[in-house]
C-alpha cells in the first residue's frame, strides 16, 4: 500500500474509455468525418443494446429483428434486392413499412443517410424519399 501512496496521480487517457465513445468514434471514422455526430452516438447505443440482447437472450435473433430501425432497413433492402429500384418515394417506403410510425421510418431513413448508405431528397411536403447509388444496398 505504501508504494501506492508514492505513485503520482494518474493522468486521464487520451483514448476513449467508454465503449459507447469508441463505437461513436469508429462510426464517424467510417464516414471519414472529423467529428462525432449525434447520429453516430445513437447508432452506437443501438448497436450496444442489440449486442446485450443477443448475449442475454436465448432467442436473441428474434428479438433483434423487433428493433424498428433494423426491420425497416431490412424491408427496404429486401425490396431493393428483388426489384433493383433506384429511388423510393415516401409513399413506397410507408407501404413497405406500414406497421411502423412515420417518425420511426423518418428516423431510419435519416440514420442510414447520415451513414452514407443512401441519399435523401425531400418532396414538396418535406417528406424524404430514398435515392440509391450504384451498389449501395448490395453490401
Question: Would you give an account of this structure?
Answer:
- This protein is 56% helix and 7% strand.
- With 139 residues, it is mainly alpha-helical.
- Strand 2 (119-122) and strand 3 (128-131) form a beta hairpin.
- The model is unreliable at 1-5 and 10-14 (pLDDT under 50).
Layout of secondary structure:
Blueprint: H1 2-6, H2 19-30, H3 38-56, H4 60-65, H5 68-83, E1 87-88, H6 90-96, H7 102-114, E2 119-122, E3 128-131
Antiparallel strand pairs: 1-3, 2-3
Characteristic terms for this protein:
mainly alpha; 3 strands
Structural class: mainly alpha
Overall form: globular
Helix content: 55-70%
What's the alpha carbon Rg, rounded to whole Å? Answer: 20 Å
Order of helices and strands: HHHHHEHHEE
Helix count, DSSP H or I runs of 4 or more residues? 7
Summarize the structure.
With 139 residues, the protein is mostly helical.
Amino acid at each position: 500500500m505504501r508504494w501506492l501512496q508514492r505513485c503520482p496521480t494518474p493522468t486521464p487517457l487520451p483514448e476513449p474509455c467508454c465503449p459507447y465513445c469508441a463505437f461513436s468514434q469508429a462510426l464517424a471514422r467510417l464516414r471519414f468525418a472529423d467529428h462525432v455526430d449525434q447520429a453516430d452516438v445513437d447508432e452506437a447505443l443501438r448497436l450496444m443494446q442489440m449486442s446485450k440482447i443477443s448475449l442475454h437472450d436465448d432467442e436473441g435473433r428474434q428479438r433483434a429483428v423487433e428493433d424498428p430501425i433494423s426491420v425497416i432497413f431490412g424491408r427496404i433492402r429486401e425490396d431493393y434486392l428483388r426489384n433493383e429500384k433506384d429511388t423510393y418515394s415516401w409513399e413506397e417506403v410507408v407501404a413497405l413499412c406500414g406497421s411502423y410510425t412515420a417518425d420511426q421510418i423518418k428516423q431510419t431513413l435519416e440514420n442510414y443517410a447520415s451513414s452514407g448508405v443512401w441519399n435523401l431528397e425531400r418532396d414538396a411536403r418535406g417528406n424524404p424519399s430514398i435515392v440509391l447509388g450504384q451498389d449501395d444496398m448490395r453490401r
